[in-house]
Design brief:
The structure holds 2 protein chains of 2 kinds. By secondary structure, chain A is an alpha+beta fold. Helix content of chain A is 28%, strand content 40%. Chain B contains 21 helices and 20 strands. The complex binds flavin-adenine dinucleotide (FAD) and thiamine diphosphate (TPP).
Chain lengths: 163, 579
Amino acid sequence: MRHIISILMENESGALSRVSGLFSARGYNIESLTVAPTEDPTLSRMTVVTRGSDRIIEQITKQLNKLVDVVKLIDLSESEHIERELMMIKVRAEGDARSEAKRLCEIFRGNIVDVTASSYIIEVTGAASKLDALIAALDENSIIEVVRSGTTGIPRGLTGLHV
Amino acid sequence: MGIVELSGAEILMRCLKEEGVEYIFGYPGGAVLHIYDALFQQDDVKHILVRHEQGATHAADGYARATGKPGVVLVTSGPGATNAVTGIATAYLDSIPLIVISGQVPSPVIGSDAFQEVDMVGITRPCVKHNFLVKDVSEIAETMKKAFMVATTGRPGPVVVDIPKDTTDPSIKVPFKYPKQISMRSYNPVVKGHKGQIKKAVDVILEAERPMIYSGGGVVLGNAAKELTEFTKHLGYPITNTLMGLGAYPATDSQFVGMLGMHGTYEANMAMHECDVLIAIGARFDDRVTGKLSEFCPNCKIIHIDVDPSSISKTVRVDVPIVGEVKPVLAEMIELLKGSKKKAPAKAIKEWWKQIDEWRRMDCLHYDRGSELIKPQFVIETLYEVTGGDAYVTSDVGQHQMWAAQYYPFDKPRRWINSGGLGTMGFGLPAAIGVKLGYPDSDVVCVTGEASIQMCLQELSTALQYNTGIKIVNLNNRFMGMVRQWQEFSYESRYSHSYLDTIPDFVKLAESYGHVGILVEKPGDVKDALKEALKLKDRTVFLDIITDPTENVYPMIEAGKAHNEMRLAPGSIGSRELA
Ligand SMILES: Cc1cc2nc3c(=O)[nH]c(=O)nc-3n(C[C@H](O)[C@H](O)[C@H](O)COP(=O)(O)OP(=O)(O)OC[C@H]3O[C@@H](n4cnc5c(N)ncnc54)[C@H](O)[C@@H]3O)c2cc1C
Ligand SMILES: Cc1ncc(C[n+]2csc(CCOP(=O)(O)OP(=O)(O)O)c2C)c(N)n1
């Protein structure tokens, strides 16, 4: 099962490598990993998307909690949450493809953020599955470049991850 | 009292003093010269100069295991630091509290491939509980306080503090104040167990008909031998210890069924296999213990007490987990048990003991006592006899380690000092030096093999310098015995590179280091030689004991087999009756 684990950790140099090192040393799978400081500059928020059986996910959260730099974590997948990822995708936009790209961008509620005579950059946000769907909908040959931020997420309602 | 201004190196010394550090095990080099200069100018902390940084970590580790206090190490950057890594990993796998101070190149040149630069924080990340890179002299005191706290609380472990040379510069002085207390919002180990879980566990314990207590290194680390003994005595249940847990329950007591696992006793492993309630206490279900996982304790409920949640349900699913320190959790359990109206089903327990006694009759630790060659098991039994069972015994890794564990019944915790998790050959000698420094008046014996002893042999020189009168019992079988045994069993006796045919003359070697060497070749001489060695209180004595090269460690559960599939010693009752 896919899990989104959200981690609040000390904003120390090396904190990121403690997490990534843990995943590689123990053979856990990482689908994506994002990290940035929070409103409190001494804390970083990291989001890891991983897959595994319940037992593996249990070990992953226990091992992460054991890292001395980790302050708190939650498995977002265990409750209602919002999941978002940002993607920028550069596509060929010549002839018929130009209007097709624009149409798909609208359907996926994206924005065209860069325009040249022969290309568009489309910006879209959404759950990872929505971004996958846009990529699938586009003609493979029209895609020049894809960048994705990796998934971040936040629990719904009043509950949250803070110190 | 005003606040004093000190250099980083002086601050470091003061921190060690404040922490009550007696000994620091180290080896100098460029990046730590400021620290060595500060060391020279104080006499609160005694420095033990080893001959190799691996020796420093093992000696500090041995000291920590025996005394319960953290071991402290000081090494230089680059090769000094990398030499320490094996010892750090050894301590990590056995959860031993160490503070390893490593020198680092000056901050401005970090990352430039400077002379003797290695990324120590990066290299040690997977084998430390935590590590720190000091960025400024003003951080040293607080970092050291954190290092000691992290190393010694919760599940203990090694902590590396990497100190760039510029932060110890004698000309840069800052105000020094050692924090009395420190808290880290990201580090809050659990101490007490969950009341509800403890109650639930007690209920399960009292319903057991075939109970088994399986306790490990956590009881030693958590100083809970007294509680474990009281708990076990109160219940009257059988108990087994892991290799790391030996001594936490008196091995000479009738409720003790011996060590379990790969080289555990027949009765311990059979009782594990047949029990209906397993009470795991500070043990981590290691693969040497569980054998084939799918057939581990097939029909039982498992209760597990451990301070580290990640030890629980890691390899084996647990029914009643209790996260907490063994000492308070057991104390609470004892109280509940004493106040409980419910009693364990006496008749069933009696039947269970009858079954266990039946297994005991198989005489699984049988060996040929009439042999003309010296049997290694006989040497250990004799060692037990002449030391009155009261020595500190360190060991290296191999057959000799297993024989020491099997034939020297430890009645007290912290007496048996060995590398279980990493299985580091070379551990025994430096560890014995560390133990002896902690307990100068006690007998300290290092049980080793001719292959292992050569891995940290240089520390014989340290033993002379600090006059640590340790006794080295070298079970010399001219083989990497443990490797040879596996090759005999699993590779049709193709002894690929497990034979040592250029073994030094250990007697001369010991003498050249200024020690006493004794060669023992006949069973009849073993006892006198051991007695003589122990009489030479202040001398390090190297006993080179020529043993039967074909002897194997039994019982043995081969890799991938279950607890009820043991190989028993030829000639034992079990090997005949169960054949
Ligand atoms: C050649 C060789 C053969 C071996 N054969 C065997 C064998 O036959 N049998 C055997 O048992 N081992 C054997 N070992 C050792 C084995 O590899 C493991 O090191 C050992 O089994 C682990 O012991 P343990 O479960 O007690 O855990 P330890 O490594 O001692 O871990 C302690 C556990 O207790 C917890 N803990 C620590 N402090 C506390 C506290 N205060 N409160 C609560 N919990 C705490 C920790 O979190 C951890 O889970 C062998 C090793 C070698 C090298
Ligand atoms: C540093 C290291 N290298 C290799 C091994 C693998 N190993 C385990 S036991 C052993 C043989 C030990 O031989 P010896 O010290 O003579 O002891 P014996 O088994 O003969 O008692 C070896 C090579 C190890 N445990 N540690």
